[in-house]
Amino acid sequence: MITAAQLRAARALAGLDQRSLADRSGLSLPTIQRMEASDGAIRGNIDSLTKLVAALETAGVELLNEGVTGHGQGRGVRLKERSASMGPASIPLRR
Questions:
Q1: What span, in angstroms and rounded, lies between the C-alpha atoms of 86 and 82?
Q2: What is the model's pTM?
Q3: From the CB of residue 32, how many other CB atoms can be counted at a distance below 10 Å?
Q4: For the chain, what percentages of helix, strand and coil (3-state, to nearest 5) are there?
Q5: Residues 42, 25 contacting (CB under 8 angstroms)
Q6: I need a labelling partner for 88 at 20 to 30 A (CA). Which of 1, 12, 62, 79 fits?
Q7: Taking the CA of residue 95 as centre, how many other CA atoms within 13 Å lie in the half-sphere pointing to its CB?
Q8: Which tens digit of pLDDT belongs to each residue from 46-74?
């Protein structure tokens, strides 16, 4: 499960605008906009949610669920560690 707040934070960490995330995930811009405007958990079909999460992970963002060990509690997002050779140009565009 991913919340609208996690989605907005993840997209910001990845440096993506809504259109870029739509292109990378294979979803429409209105779908991304609806997901981000949701209250609480994002609702959608499994295929769309899977594409969304995969695009965010490919962009270097990790989604954190409740109960993940760390300094805080609750849901969140963080950047994955990247090798020195990876940069924004190495993030593939999904079609």
A1: 6
A2: 0.73
A3: 24
A4: 45, 10, 45
A5: no
A6: 1
A7: 0
A8: 999 999 999 999 999 998 876 555 555 55
